[in-house]
Amino acid sequence: MQERGVFVAHSTGHRWAIRILPLMAAVFRRRKRAVGSSWRMDETYIKVAGPWKYRYRAADRAGDTVDFVLTAKRDKAAARCFVEQAIRR
Fold first, then answer.
1. pTM for this one?
2. CA dist., res. 79 & res. 43, Å (int)
3. Whether the Cβ atoms of residue 57 and residue 44 lie closer than 8 Å to each other
């Protein structure tokens, strides 16, 4: 934005992201193609920007990602909540 003469603090960009990203996610979910009735869930331990995180991912039969979530700790309640949300979607 500085190239165009607009000076914006990083906190302003962060606030925009916090406000806009949930709206974009809702629009993308509406436009996403339908997922088959058969899918699986896997759990992986990955490094994200330094710290290690647990990634829970739901994938359909073709291997396309249905949904995913990153958590700091391995938590049975978080995994169960993720599965229930993925089933609803």
1. 0.50
2. 9
3. yes
Pairwise CA distance, residues 36 & 45, whole Å: 26
Mean pLDDT of 5-32: 82
Helices marked H in 1-75: 10-31
Residue indicated by tokens 């869930």: 41
Distance between CA 81 and CA 83 in Å, rounded?
A: 6
Query: Each residue of 22-50: pLDDT tens digit?
Result: 888 888 877 766 666 677 777 788 888 88
Q: How far apart are CA 42 and CA 39, in angstroms?
A: 10
Residue found by looking up tokens 């992201």 in the block: 17
